[in-house]
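Hi everyone, sorry if this is the wrong subforum. Our group has a chain we'd like a structural model of before ordering constructs, and none of us has done structure prediction before. Sequence below.
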Amino acid sequence: MQIGLFHSVQWPEGSDQADRYEQALTQACYADELGFDSVWLTEHHFSRHGIVSDSLTVLAYLAARTSHVRLGTAVSVLPLHHPLRLAEAAATVDQLSRGRLDLGIGRGYQPGEFRGFGVDIAEKNDRFAEALDILKQVWATDGPVSYSGTYWSFEDAAPQPRPRQRPHPPLWVATDSPDGLARCAAEDWGVLLPQGTSLTVTAGQMKRYAEALAGAGQGPGRARAYLARAAYVAPSDAQAWAEAEGPYKDFLGYADTLRRATGPDAAPGGRSPFDLDADLRDSALFGSPETVIDRLRAIKELGIDRVMLFLHLGGLPHEKIMSSLDLFAREVLPTAREL
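Answer:
Right subforum, don't worry. Here is the predicted structure as tokens:
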């Protein structure tokens, strides 16, 4: 099983942005030292939910501070980016990291982010499709490309630099819809699954993914799915839940307020990646090393062999996160490798 780290760099009330960034970067570099497989950053704007507004810039910094972890976006919100600019920024990180970039992409779901950039959230699916079409074209062509679309048009553009991984870094798409999973199966793209769902919901998502792979003439061995999970490891289950449950509930509550429309004329937000009705004990990896290993084994039985851990929870102290990382690396990671 591959185990990564997932970060949004939240900014809780009363905390300092510089401290939060330094702590998150320290945690990411420590994960590299401990032998974790990857570090993923998510993009957010205009709120305390996450202050990584430009994940590729932060990953470029981490490319110089780390040596072996894969560096991923989970996700870059395609409708909010000019695709040519994103192509160049992603290729830059891929070059600086010597080919360690994984590009996760999604449609976005928070109305405030779209309003802030003057983009109609109702256009997000069409914008996503057009941006992805542009990325595919410019990465498949060595020379200049011209494009005339609904949202972006350009002539004779040849984005530079070119990615180190050819034709482009591995693509991962945040989706669990039958159409989205079918596209991923047909194109051999990876799938990013929501972090806040119960295992029962996740099992249904993986069933749809298996059906999509079969429809593309591929077997289950071709599955590439990353599951994000809130995680916290302590010497006992009781201690883990006592220390992590409150900060995670604070995070979930704030995330849901951002998803909701904020005015009578506001467009509704997209579907939240968090199932607020789910039993946290079925959707979070909180517990002793033995308990977390059992939970990872249950995830592996669904056909998922990649998990990214969301440890930077709300106001959870940095020292406790570092302790959890260390305990996970010593007592969970070796067994997870064998699952």
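For your construct planning: Residues 237-259 form the longest helix (23 residues). The domain at 2-338 is CATH 3.20.20.30 (TIM Barrel).
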